[in-house]
Each structure stands twice: as C-alpha cells, then as structure tokens.
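Slide 14.
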Amino acid sequence: MQKWAKYLILLGMFITAYMLILAWQKDYGHIAADQNVATPVAQTAQPASADIPNANASSVAATPVNNADVPPVATPKKEAAAPVIAPAPQGLITLQTDMYRITVDPKGGDVVRSELLNHLNAVDSQKAFVLLEDGPGRVYTAQSGLIGVDGPDAAATGRPLYTSAQTSYVLATGQTSLDVPLTFEAPNGVQIIKSFHLTAGQYPIKVSYQIINRGKKPWQGQMFGQVKRDNSADPSKANQGMMGMSTYMGGAWGTPDSHYNKLKFTKYQEDPLNQTVKGGWVAVLQHYFVTAWIPDANTTAVLSTRVSGNNNFIGFTDPVVTVAPGMQQTISATLYTGPKVQDNLKPLAVGLDQTVDYGWLWPIAQVLFLGLKYIHGFIGNWGWSIILLTLLVKIVLFPLSAKSYRSMAKMKVIAPEMQRLKEVHGEDRMKFSQEMMALYKKEGVNPLSGCLPILLQMPIFMSLYFVFMESVELRNAPWIGWITDLSSMDHWFVLPLIMGVTMFVQQALNPQPADPMQAKMLRLMPIVFTVFMLWFPSGLVLYWIVNNLLTIVQQKYVNHQIEKSYHPKVG
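Slide 15: predicted structure.
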C-alpha cells in the first residue's frame, strides 16, 4: 500500500508539471517579435479600398429616423490653452489625456497610434507602451467610417479627408473631458462631424458621427468600426529569457448569449464571423492589452471578419441611417484601446471582461486574483501581497491537510518497524503486504493521505499561473531588490534555486520509500521542478517558495508532536 501511495504522490506531481507544460506551450509557444517600436506613418501601403467593409443594408433593417432640425452653421470651438507637445508626423492629429496619447489620421479619421502613458514599454524603459501603430514593422489600427449609399467611405473614392482646427489637443489641468471634432464637407451638401470624446482617468473613447443634411435629398449610410491587424508577431510580451515566450494574439467577440469567443487570425477566412446581434462587441487581443469596438447597445449590428492581403479585420456594421433634408442625426460607438483591466471592461459590454482569460480554472483564478487585489489595496506591493495570500490559502486548506501531515509523520516514525517486517518476511511479498496493512490499521495510518497536499495544490498553482499570465496589474510590478517584474522570470535564477532547496527539505521531512527506484525519482523531483521553474513568472515561483516554507514549518511541528507522543502499539 505504501508503494501505491508513493506512486500516487509522484503521479500528482507529474500531472501538475504536465498540465503546466501544456498551458505554457499553449500560451508561450511562439517566438516573439522585436520589442522596438516602429515610427508611425500616415498611411500603409495597402490600397484604401481594401480597408472598407461591404455595406450590410440587406441584412440589417434600417434605423427608424429620429432626426433633429439642422442648427445654424457654427464654427467648432477650439479647446482651452494646453501644454505644447510635439506636432504629429506627416500631418497627423494627436489627442492626449492623463491616460494616453492617441494619434488620428485625418484621412478616414482612424486611430493609427496609441501610447499608454501609465504603462511603460519595459521595466527599464521610460517610454510609454505603444499598443496601436501603423508603420513598416507592424500595422495595428482602429478604424471607423460611414459606408452605404451616401457614406463618404467608398471603395471607388477611398477614405474622406477630415479637417481639424488644431493638430494637437491636450486635456488641460482641471478638465474632465476632451472633445475633438473632425469635419468633412460632402459634395451633396451634407456635413459630417466625426468626434472623439475622451474622459480623464478613463480609456473608453466615444466615437460619434453627426450627419447634418443641408442638401435636397435624404442621406443614407451606415457606421462601421473595425480593428485592423497584420500578421506580425505580438511585441507586447516582457523579456522572458531564451525561451522566447509569447501569449495568444488574435480576434475575439462576444454577445449577450455567447459572452466570450476567441477567433484566431487564421480562422478569419476559414470560419468567418458573421453574427447579427444587439449588445455585442469585437476585439483584437494580445498579452495584457485589448483593442475593442463596442457598438451602441440599442442598435442591431453585424459582427464580421475578413482578410485582405496581409491584414486581418474584425468589426461591426450598424444599420442603415436615413437623414432627411434639413435634418441631422448622430450615431456612435465606443472604442477601447488599453490594458485588460476587468473593472474597466465589465461596464462596457457583456463578456468583454473575460478577455482577461484565466482558462478553464477561471472560478478559482478569479477568487485568487480578487483576494490578491484586496490585499494589495492595503499593502501596496504585489510581492508581499503574494506572500500574504499564500499564508491565507495555507490557513484555509490546513483543516484538510492537517490529517495528511499527521499520517505522514506517523509513517516516518513507524519506518523502522516497516524495515523490520521487510527483513523478516524477505521475498514473501504477500505476507509482507498483509503485515504492513495490519501495522497501518493498528497505528491508524492512511498512506494515501500523503497525496492530499499535492492534489489540493494542483488547481491553486495552475490558477495562479493564469493569474500571473493574464493580469496586467502585475506587469512590471516590483517586489524587492532584483525582482523588478513579478510577471516575468527571475533573470538571476535566485528564486527557482531557493524553490528547489525548499522542495528538497520538504521531501526530507517525509517518510522515504523503501523501493530504491521510487526514492531515486523523488530525489530528482526538486531538480526537475527547479529547471522547469527557471522561466516561470517570479511571482509564481515566490508563491511556491512560501508554500513550501509553510509546509516545512507545519510538517516539522507535526513530526515533533508525533515523535514526542508516539508509543508503539503492542498486539
């Protein structure tokens, strides 16, 4: 029985390692791209017509006309005086708040660059992290426009050229929002004002189109929004050493009925998205960050994907809007281009917060993250928060593991008697097994209980793996000294080596198997796990170290108590 117990313990440890390898290969199986940020340019080499989706007038009913009278023509107000910033290259327009700096191309009014001011490119960098960009090294932009019968975005004529009163807009001190209007005068007497509404301290951007019809005929068109991404590799991963790990990058979409769905770029043509929904969203994901379009929740939009050349598009198309002569109409959608923070994403659309993908252990991972976040609110350091969380998890699991510790302690004290029985019965394995079971029963020992700590730790450790891989809050989060990023590997390998030592000490406190092969395998486990952990997030290795240290203290205390009170039973 002891032999099978040891095999079960080994099996549990190998299952843990195997599942981690599978998750690691799924999320980190590709070589990452160069971290250098390309210089933005106004337009890509792709023809303008390739960026324009087809109108969906036949598949979506027209929006009921709810027009307002056209007001007198007014000149858009200029923003209040703001700090001077460098002009955007090649006539681009910059919008800057306390959260980011957005660059808009006046041709089409697309967002061609976004710099996240509160997220550095790397731990040792002073440059803001660049999420969207349009350059020779990478094309990743958020596009929107008006298509249809009278829409200015047309395959034949290309994208409209908007004009703006300024080339740079900055949220001034004391301002709570920034409104940036871009104007296009259509030849049919229709004025279109494309506006970006940004709010202080927030990432969502409201993108709206005000169609003012001063012509003689009704105006008809549809709003579209899409994320354009080429097939270049994900540049957002932190430096993970020679393993060159990179996470999932691709499309995603959701509806009120199907909250979260991934769609790889390779599936855009093989299994294209074509869903007519109310209250949906589309997005492109990369490690820690997301760019998403959320159509007006009160309209029924078509979510779709397509591929043009080297570019992948995922977006939405609103219903047809009709604006009568002398009337005006405003349509809008929300653009989110920023970190995958659940509190920011959840209010925008159902399921958008699930882009923080904790995998199949999501319920456990979510509880652990919320606990970690709560502790961090008091401590202010994610490393110490991990240590305290580990202690709390250990306390919660102690009632379940205490019996196992006592049983393993008894196994250790009866080891001499086990050895004596083996010598007495020699090669008679059946008799030895009978005597061993009788000894277990007499001493109240359950050898299988030694598997319980491993089985309890497996889902917790796996869940924390996903938490550290997906929670942007831990990106570039320092602990102490050389640990400057808990989400990346320990480049000095100090924590993995400490973890291996604690694992070795922990094993020494437990009864050793009589089978030489089993004993050899157990001795190799600390080495195997140490090598395996060299490239894992340092925060995850820190959790394992603290867990091992607490286990050592608990087991040592229980061993001492059992040895002190143990009296061999006779008969």
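Speaker note: The domain at 88-237+247-357 is CATH 2.70.98.90 (Beta-galactosidase; Chain A, domain 5).
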